[in-house]
Specification:
about 350 residues; Rhopdopsin 7-helix transmembrane proteins; about 0% strand; globular
Length: about 350
Amino acid sequence: MESETSLQTAEDIKVIPGVDWWWASWSILSVAALVFNIVFIVVAVKQRKSRDLRSLLTAALITLAVLDILDILRVASSIVVNIHTFVEYKITFCSLGVFHTVGVSLLLSLATLYLVFPCRDSPPLYYPATTCSGSLPQKILLPLIILVSGGAAAVIYVIPELTEEITDDQGMVPHSCMDYTRVLSVTNENNEKFIADLYQTLVFIVGVVLPLLLAPPTILVAGVRSCMKGQCCHVKYKQNAGELLCVLFIVFFYLGTVVAVVLPRLDSKIGMEDIPLDSAPTLWQLSNAVARPLIIFLCNPGIWDGVVSLCTCSSYDSVTLHEEEDGIALQPVVERVSSL
C-alpha cells in the first residue's frame, strides 16, 4: 500500500513542464552546454602552456565546466525516464544538486577573490625574482572546495527527510531540490521542519548570499585598481581586463538566474498570486551552463586565442609565439647609462 502511494506521488514530480517548447528548450540548452563546455576544456588543456592560462582563474573555470557537465548528465537521467519513484535515486539526485550548487558558488567566489590577489599582476614569468606563485593556491583551494561541497551534499544521505516535499505548487522539482524561500520560515516557533529549513537556509547563504556579498566590492576594487594602473588602456594588459569582464558577466548572470528561479516560489508568499509566473528552475540552470563558456570565449583573450588556433590548425605558430614571449619576458633588462 505504501509503495502504491509513493508511486502515485512520484508520478506527479516533474523536472520540466510537459509543454513541447519546454522540451525543445531543454534539448537545445543541454546539447549546447555540453558542446561549449567540452570545447572550453579541450582548448584550456591544449593551451595550458600559454602564460595567459597559467592562473588560478583558469583552473577554477575548468573545474566549473566539469561540474556543469556532470550536472547536465544528472538532469538528463531524470528527464528521459522518470525514476523519482525510487527513494534512493531521489536522494542521490538531490545530493548531486546540492554538490553542484555549493561548488559553483564557491568557485565563483574564488574567481572574484582572484581579481584582487596580490600576485595577479606580477606573475613569476615576468618577475623571476618574486616568490609569487599560483600553483600552491590551486593545489589547496580547489580540492578544499570540492571537499566542502561533497560534505554539504553528504548531509542528505545522513538526513533523507530533507528530500521530502521538494516540489512546488506546480509539481516542479527545483534544480538542486532546495527551496530558498524556506529561509522565511526557519525562525518560526514550533517549526516541525526546522532541520530541513535550517539546512536549506545554509545552502541559500552559501549559494546566493556569499557571492552576492563578495562580488560587488571585489570587482569594484579590482576595476579601480586596474584603472589607476592604466591597465584598461593598453593592449598588453588585455588579459587582465578580459578576466575582470569575464568574472563580472558570469557572476551577474548567475545571480540573475537565481532571481528567476526564486520569484515563482516567492510570489505566493508576498501576495502576488494575480501575476502567474512559470517555474522552470532546471532551464535557468542550463542557461547558466551555456552562458558561462560563451562568456569565457568572448571575454578571456587567452581562451579566444586558443579557439582561433584550434580552428585554424595553427597550433605550431601559437606555441612558437608563446615560447618567444616567454624568452623575451625572462631576458634580463640592460640599462644604458649616459656618458653625461
